Give the backbone structure.
Amino acid sequence: MKQQDVAVIIAIVFFAGVFSVVLSNKFISPPSSKRTAEVVQPITADFVLPSTDVFNATAENPTRLIEIAPNANNQPFADANN
């Protein structure tokens, strides 16, 4: 390449870069600096008790251990390698 060709390519790249920055700023504008936030209620120490229809002394306990059948085998997979 001749030295003139390199200078022309550099000038084209420069003008293309400037043109793309100007064009992108026109179509893709930066967000406005005015921002708003939603208003929230302050946290209080009040606690509303849940319904006694669901949470009461006679309700079923879902965290209890359920045993389907008695099983005395403490190592169920001990013989799997044999």
Observations:
- The two ends are 76 Å apart (CA to CA).
- Residues 19 and 25 are 10 Å apart (CA to CA).
